[in-house]
Amino acid sequence: MAGYPILKNTAFDFPLEYIDSSDDKTHKLNPTLASGDVKVSIDFGTLNNLATLPSVAPAGSSIVKHELSAAEMNGDILVIEGKDVAGAEWNDWSAIILTSTYQIDVDWIDALLGRDIGNAEGTAAVHSLVTAVLKAVSRVVDNNGTLEVYRTDGTTLHMSQTVTEDATLEPIDELGVGS
User: Fold this and answer.
1) Does residue 171 have a cis peptide bond before it, meaning omega lies within 30 degrees of 0?
2) Helix extents (H) in the chain
3) Residue 61 needs a FRET pair 20 to 30 A away by CA distance; which of 18, 27, 70, 147 works?
4) How far is residue 106's CA from residue 120's CA, in Å, rounded to a whole number?
């Protein structure tokens, strides 16, 4: 699965459908593309032709595949510009791509926050969101002054905390730092 945002200095492909200039509303089937039709500006620099000429994919459709090389992705802000230089079969367009030097792996986020805490609990630190969730939804036991938090299987100890009680205060005065 792709991550987000789009990575700087990493080749990137994207699809785009061009608007037919004969009616200004429908997608142009099988648009003709030539050198100079699609250019890229890196961080508001000079517009340069794409290294790879965009192509219709699948053939005969209105979908145009644009392939940017790692070198063409070497900027924080990319402006891709399309102009039919040989004629006017499709309308001018532009696309802006914002890049980043880091990427968030969607699968990792899902494992940490999402649908199955069991995917992340085995490697989770004591002071983590996973532990907080386990405390809220999993088996928790007071074992003679030690609070024990178990993993989703209900038998594997995830962490424990010392419980301090003071008869003059509430039944539980303090939970020590987990271990």
Assistant:
1) no
2) 106-113, 129-137
3) 70
4) 14
pLDDT in tens, 53-109: 999 999 999 999 999 999 999 999 999 999 999 888 999 999 999 998 776 665 656
Question: Which amino acid type is present at position 66?
Answer: H
d(CA 17, CA 20): 9
pLDDT above 80 for 154: yes
Burial 103-120 (b: 16+ CB within 10 A, else e): eeeeeeeebbeeeebebb
With a cut of 90, say whether residue 144 has pLDDT above it.
no
- DSSP summary character for residue 165: -
CATH of region 6-100, choose from 3.90.1150, 1.20.58, 1.10.12, 2.60.40: 2.60.40
- pTM to 2 decimal places: 0.59
pLDDT above 80 for 120: no
Q: How far apart are CA 12 and CA 73, in angstroms?
A: 7
In the chain, domain spans:
6-100, 116-175
Pairing of strands 93-100, 6-7: parallel
pLDDT of amino acid 24: 93
Q: What are the start-end ranges of the H helices in 17-144?
A: 106-113, 129-137
Assigned token pair, 77: 């802000």
Residue 37's nearest CA partner among 18, 54, 17, 20 is 54
